[in-house]
Design goal:
alpha+beta; 4 helices; about 25% helix
């Protein structure tokens, strides 16, 4: 897989954790995962070896979302990392976002975003409607 436009959010994560440890923000401010994100982490996420930086109880879970016009109604769906190479070959451009989640305390943070795809212009399909003769 050849990701493009990779953005690593490690500095923003580090700043958020520094604010938490300095008392500028509370745990309720940073441990605010949406119920749908927690559900996606439980049932579709991929466990990591890293521990939660807030509660230190559970290993973090990565949830990978894909967005793109070519995906249609599947845009915004959670995908397994192993599925990304096939998607890269099939579509011209997809935006991928990886969020780390702790299902114990609700910590969540965007870790990485990148673009995958063939990079070729999107093939437009014609309308299925036919005009009257």
């Amino acid at each position: 897989m050849r990701p493009r436009s990779v953005i690593d959010y490690a500095l923003a994560r580090r700043a958020t954790l520094a604010d938490l440890h300095a008392g500028r923000v509370s745990t309720t401010d940073v441990c605010d995962a949406h119920p749908y994100l927690l559900r996606a982490a439980r049932y579709h996420g991929e466990a990591t070896t890293r521990r939660c930086p807030v509660c230190r109880n559970e290993p973090l879970i990565n949830v990978t979302y894909t967005y793109g016009d070519e995906l249609g109604v599947s845009s915004g769906r959670v995908r397994a990392t192993r599925d990304l190479p096939a998607l890269e070959q099939r579509f011209s451009e997809l935006n991928v976002y990886v969020v780390e989640v702790c299902t114990s305390c609700g910590w969540n943070h965007l870790t990485t975003s990148f673009v995958i795809g063939t990079g070729q212009p999107r093939v437009r399909r014609g309308s299925r409607r036919r005009t009257a003769d």
